[in-house]
Structure prediction request, 296 residues.
Amino acid sequence: MPIELYRIDDRLIHGQVVVGWGQPLDVGFIVLVDDEVAASDWEQELYRMGVPPHMDVHFDTVESAAARLRDYDADVRTGVLLTGDIDTMQRLADAVGGLRRVNLGGLHHRAGRRQRLRYVFLAPEEEASLRALAARGTEITAQDVPAAAPVSLDDVLQSKGDVL
Amino acid sequence: MSSGVRAVVAGHGGFAAGLVSAVDQITGRGAELATMSNRDLGGAAIEERLREHVESGVRVIFTDLPAGSVTIAARRIMRDHPELSLVTGANVAALLEFVMADAGDDAAAGRAAEKGRQALASHRVTGVARAD
Prediction:
């Protein structure tokens, strides 16, 4: 089945992903797309450590993820694909000719970013990247956990971070 | 370390504050445990705050989930600080054992993990018909 969730989350693998999404979706594997992590055995071990034994973790660069995406989509288990930033997801979308849906799961405060939601802070260039992705047909919503209501990209970009 | 803080308890939401509040109510020794929440923090910020505790002299870290972002950050810090002890899946019983233990922090952390495991149990009353 096609990968169920394409998620941008700067914590990559963590509790919300493994438990919050992992259990209700019955996730069987995670594809972690990050060029630095893909080049580091130590980082991979770090992220693999806390994942339950029944859940596989694949570590990919953008290039290798794009090459393997068809195989991942053919897996009978439910899959989640993670990137730690918008740029990586955008490069993946470019490499595979577009993505249907992308979830903003957690982009936290750092210099140059403005708060949009409790868990989404965006720099102007990141907002432009998301608009470009949406203009190509990708449905983008923010939703940290399944129990929360998804927030459309338009609402995210109009939010001042004081309500949602 | 001048504050008397021996360990940091860190995790999701109000996990740490709740546990330490319970420890303080039971023993009056809650001040030996610093607390930290990962709420609304990115990975880098979590690591930075946890590192501040380590650099102030804390040698033991208690976290909630083995796959949680705080645990990931703690494991990353342990690469530079192999003297650290990390206990995941912490609960009140584990923390009580730690603060009451008459042992060094490292040994106390090991005993705390064991005590925490022992405290986790499922109970049912036998011989009573269940409504379902």
User: Anything to note?
Assistant: Helices of chain B lie at 15-27, 43-55, 69-80, 92-100, 105-119. Chain B has a mean pLDDT of 93. Strands of chain B lie at 7-11, 33-37, 60-63, 85-87. The domain at 7-119 of chain B is CATH 3.40.50.510 (Rossmann fold).
